[in-house]
Amino acid sequence: MSVVLSISSIAVIAAFRDQKVSLPLRLSDEDIGVVLDDDGVDVVTVDVNGERPDGQATAIAMMIVSAVNHLAGIEPTNTAEGNADE
């Protein structure tokens, strides 16, 4: 039997907001593998010990950004490559 798990965009946004994380998420322009919220605050760091190549850490961080933003119903315009406003 297959179980399908579904969560609404509103629930995702509310859950992050409850943790003081502003969406959309984005990659840091300055630090490899660092995911920031819309306010520029660190949310997660991929490979904090530096055991993976930079490209791999960046790819993993980009997948996290893309997945969370997708679940939140946010279009993928420039959210994976940093903030154009900085």
TrEMBL record:
Name this polypeptide is given: Uncharacterized protein
Lineage: Bacteria, Pseudomonadati, Pseudomonadota, Alphaproteobacteria, Hyphomicrobiales
Organism, as annotated: Shinella pollutisoli
